[in-house]
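ok here's Protein kinase domain-containing protein:
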Amino acid sequence: MPEDRCYHDHCHKEYFIVLIVVSGLILSTTLAVVVWLLVYKRSKKRKRSREASGASATALVPPLWKVFNSEELRSITKNFSEGNRLPGNAKTGGTYSGTLPDGSKLAIKRLKRSSLQRKKDFYSEISRVAKLYHPNLVAVKGCCYDHGDRFIVYEFVANGPLDVWLHHIPRGGRSLDWATRMRVATTLAQGIA
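and the structure:
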């Protein structure tokens, strides 16, 4: 009888070892499959996101914006003459109209001089804003950073700034009715979205 018992204990030990090994293999295989699925799904999601952002970015990004130098802007605006100054808030530094040699009109916004914003940060910000393109937003055509003087170059909009039409009655014009104001607000919201 003692031999049966020893044999029986020996069998239990073997079964126990086999059970641990098989359980470990099943657990590690299951874990490997789960990790692989998570990585695969994540990479697939990233690929779809890149494809979607690539397609939408190419649809939304207008032609590249230009870095102007201060001499070009002085030439375009006739040395920032008062005759080229556009109505609007002078607190920001003023906005001027200008014409490129090819005849296209631009609006150049002169920002207040700032020593806080570095050239690299300014260009990075302009790059982000220039990527926004919508029929209801004024397109950024370029910029200039010259020893702390900052300029943003936009496409020219003939009717002037929106705040004048919303809050003041322009010369020779009349204030906007509420239906027009609602249409403007809706299209602006679409542009921002």
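+1. Residues 55-63 have pLDDT under 50 and may be disordered.
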